[in-house]
Amino acid sequence: MTRVQIARYAGAVGDFNPIHVDEEFARAAGLPSVIAHGPLTLTLVIDALISQLGTGTLRRFDARLRAPVLPGDVLTVVPTGDVVEIRTGAGKVVATANVVVENP
Question: Whose CA is closest to 69, among 86, 53, 56?
């Protein structure tokens, strides 16, 4: 996740909440840095899942955000049966999702 991705998403959806765009505000709010918008994180995860499906079709994606995603976090999608974990490079789980894929 990059600051540029976060800023572009903020501009695209008009969500300029300072926890996403103002470093000083985010720190004053108790965060280590600005954080990515939850929907941005989930959009990137869905994109990664779809690219891995081959001929399968993503039928359900019910997600729960578990922790903030920070600039510099590299996200990995880790399938474990019907549940997918989204982890940072350090192994921190930032989201989980129940996924249903239909194969032809």
Answer: 86
Reported as a single tens digit per residue, the pLDDT across 15-67 is: 999 999 999 999 999 999 999 999 999 999 999 888 888 788 889 999 999 99
Contact present, 97 and 80 (Cβ < 8 Å)? no
**Helix/strand/coil (H/E/C) assignment for every residue in 9-73:** HHHHHCCCCHHHHCHHHHHHCCCCCCCCCHHHHHHHHHHHHHHHCCCCEEEEEEEEECCCCCCCC
Give the global pTM.
0.90
Reading across the β-sheet that carries 83-87, which strands appear in turn? 57-65, 93-102, 83-87, 76-80
Give 80 or 1, the one with higher predicted confidence.
1
Q: Which domains does the chain have, with CATH numbers?
A: 3-102 (3.10.129.10)
Residue 20, phi then psi, degrees to nearest 5: -100, -20
